[in-house]
Amino acid sequence: MKFETRTFWKHVNCMDVFLAVFYVVHDNGVTASVSAEWMVQGHEIYGTAPVNPRGDNLVRVDISAEEYDNWKPYDPIGRYVGS
To answer: Looking at the DSSP assignment, which residues form a beta bridge with residue 10?
Structure first.
């Protein structure tokens, strides 16, 4: 299934933000619920985008089947900066 084939995915309308997908649950091809971290891309580095003050950056993102084609495999540029 789509989101299980690669770790990094970027929406066609996003410029500097992408997802690092860790776990995927498909709901009969209608929706993919992914557990992921939002990542940010810089010029020469990329890293985790802080989403809450607790430091727990894992989020659940529901992606409808109509949006599948808008998510493309992504290869981050440069060096990873994070924990």
So the answer is: 72
pTM, entire model: 0.84
Per-residue pLDDT of the chain (83 residues; tens, 9 = 90+): 788 888 999 999 998 899 999 989 887 767 889 999 999 999 999 998 877 666 667 888 899 989 989 999 999 999 998 75
Question: How far is it, in rounded angstroms, from Cα 79 to Cα 69?
Answer: 28
Extents of the domains making up the chain? 2-73
Cβ contacts of 58 within 8 Å, gap of 6 or more: 22, 35, 36, 37
Q: Distances in Å between the alpha carbon of 46 and those of 26, 39, 75?
A: 28, 7, 10
